[in-house]
């Protein structure tokens, strides 16, 4: 891509991000201004403005790269090998046993040090 095309694209992105910020600001101010109206109507208006802002944001270079990242993450999640129920239960029990054991060890060390300090002090 040439330098002038990159500059033109970045200027367009700056304008798009300004539109996104403006839409979000309109949603916040409008929600506050129309606080006497029904919550349902205000929620619908905020969701519509947020949807439009999201659509505009996804049409920027960073938005497209975010969409690509999200698509790749979804593909990667399909490749994950999830543990079976038995593996999950066993791992949970091991973690629980280690936590209980370490808490007893720390309680014992704390009590021992407390007795030693009490004996020294007095």
Describe this structure in words.
It is found in: Membrane. InterPro entries: SecE_bac (IPR005807), SecE_sf (IPR038379), Translocase_SecE/Sec61-g (IPR001901). This protein is mainly alpha-helical and 122 residues long. It has 2 domains: 1-80; 82-122. The protein has helices at residues 3-33, 39-58, 61-79, 85-121. α1 (3-33) runs antiparallel to α2.
Q: Concise description?
A:
The chain is mainly alpha-helical and 122 residues long.
Give me some keywords for this one.
122 residues; elongated; mainly alpha; 4 helices
For the sheet with most strands, the description reads:
none
Shape designation: elongated
Supply the number of helical segments.
4
Low-confidence stretches: none
Average pLDDT confidence is 91
C-alpha Rg (nearest Å): 28 Å
SS elements, strand count: 0
Note the run of SSEs as H and E: HHHH
Structural class computed from helices and strand pairing:
mainly alpha
Q: Into which percent range does the helicity of residues fall?
A: over 70%
Instruction: Classify the beta-strand content into a percent band.
Output: under 5%
Distance between the termini: 79 Å
Count of folded domains: 2
Topology, please?
Layout: H1 3-33, H2 39-58, H3 61-79, H4 85-121
Helix pairs in contact: 1-2
């Amino acid at each position: 891509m040439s330098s002038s095309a990159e500059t033109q694209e970045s200027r367009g992105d700056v304008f798009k991000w300004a539109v996104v910020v403006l839409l979000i600001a309109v949603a916040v101010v409008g929600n506050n201004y129309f606080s006497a109206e029904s919550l349902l109507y205000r929620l619908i208006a905020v969701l519509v403005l947020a949807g439009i802002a999201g659509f505009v944001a996804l049409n920027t270079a960073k938005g497209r790269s975010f969409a690509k990242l999200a698509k790749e993450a979804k593909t990667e999640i399909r490749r994950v090998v999830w543990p079976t129920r038995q593996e999950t239960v066993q791992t949970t029990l091991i973690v629980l046993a280690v936590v209980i054991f370490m808490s007893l060890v720390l309680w014992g060390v704390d009590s021992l040090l407390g007795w030693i300090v009490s004996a020294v002090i007095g």
